[in-house]
Amino acid sequence: xxxxxxxxxxxxxxxxxxxxxxxxxxxxxxxxxxxxxxxxxxxxxxxxxxxxxxxxxxxxxxxxxxxxxxxxxxxxxxxxxxxxxxxxxxxxxxxxxxxxxxxxxxxxxxxxxxxxxxxxxxxxxxxxxxxxxxxxxxxxxxxxxxxxxxxxxxxxxxxxxxxxxxxxxxxxxxxxxx
Length: 178
Hints:
The protein is α+β, with helices and mostly antiparallel strands. Helix content is 24%, strand content 43%.
């Protein structure tokens, strides 16, 4: 799906949807455990400054967290809410299962939702599909959505590639030479 802005009527909001995916050469259970562990986030989530729960337990449905990201000179702060996690217990995931991990982030001028699906692609391979939706309000964020839609897809893909390198090779984005 293309990251094409869609204007939604009189609200003058800009919306964008896209899907990105990647295969990771590890079993499903190992991948979801690595993704769910907050101690690993700084190792693969490029630009992460802070991710702290405000209420609830990290990764659990209903948990709200303060998220701060730094991309170049731009800093973004928002509130993340976990809206779905299935199964709740990420140990001993039955073969053939689909793991769902959904979240919404609300920040100044922007709302986003990410719907993550992880499935077995083979005996030792996991397919990670991420459906992303953004809605922008306010002049600056609407302009960003219209003028730079590819930047959001590129960032999502970069996060997935960084996670793959972390999971498969132990790479840490904090040690990368950009």
